[in-house]
Design a protein that fits this description.
Elements (H helix, E strand, L loop, with lengths): L2 H19 L9 H4 L2 H13 L2 H23 L6 H22 L7 H21 L4 H21 L5 H22 L5 H23 L1
């Protein structure tokens, strides 16, 4: 990374950590503004690092994540759930396309794909029937989430930051579904947000490293 990228990346991480530290104090004024800012910084960094279509797609992906963060936080994780789901769907589709471009000419490494394939299959069999009126959007989202994870398995020569970030992203999003539709659990919000933010940080770091 350049010095500017390192400073900007550090600012995004610090803001994310501040948001995590302030979770016990919610609701507080403008919490919905603090959460999306790191994703917007990552969007700008990814767009600058990868010019052309790949950079645009990566920027769009993090903007989609920022939108999802906003709708979940502003809507208190329920009021604007569909809007958040659509925003994260944009995030997933943009990552699928961006990772596909970054992985052009690279082999399909099936051994990396097996664990996330099994996990996604079991998750879909559990969550989709439990989603009630949300069955179709949840099924579509899980398929896109799986496609993102599969493409992430191809980008790096060996499992690295981007791959690990994508796997954490899968876990975080699956826990949102588990908590909402199947089995609510204690401390769901801090657990999910911590895993999610860690995954996004690692994806952003991996994207910058892979340029």
């Amino acid at each position: 990374m350049t010095a500017f990228e390192r400073r900007s990346f550090a600012v995004a991480v610090v803001l994310g950590l501040i948001y995590l530290a302030l979770l016990p104090l919610k609701p507080y004024p403008l919490s919905w503004l603090l959460k999306p800012i790191p994703m917007l910084i990552f969007a700008a960094l990814a767009w600058r690092a990868w010019r052309g279509v790949t950079g645009i797609l990566l920027g769009l992906a993090f903007i989609g994540a920022a939108g999802g963060d906003f709708f979940l936080d502003y809507g208190d994780r329920d009021g604007l759930f569909i809007q958040a789901l659509c925003s994260f769907l944009i995030n997933q589709l943009a990552l699928v396309a961006a990772f596909a471009l970054m992985a052009r000419g690279k082999p399909w490494l099936r051994w990396r794909m097996l664990p996330v394939t099994l996990y996604s299959l079991l998750l879909a069999l559990w969550l989709v029937p439990a989603a009630g009126t949300y069955q179709v959007p949840v099924a579509i989202y899980l398929l896109c989430l799986y496609a993102m994870a599969i493409m992430a398995c191809r980008v790096e020569a060996k499992p690295g930051l981007l791959w690990l970030g994508a796997m954490l992203f899968v876990i975080a999003d699956s826990l949102i579904g588990v908590n909402k539709f199947a089995m609510p659990f204690a401390y769901a919000v801090p657990v999910i947000v911590t895993i999610y933010f860690s995954g996004q940080v690692l994806i952003a770091a991996g994207v910058l490293r892979q340029r």
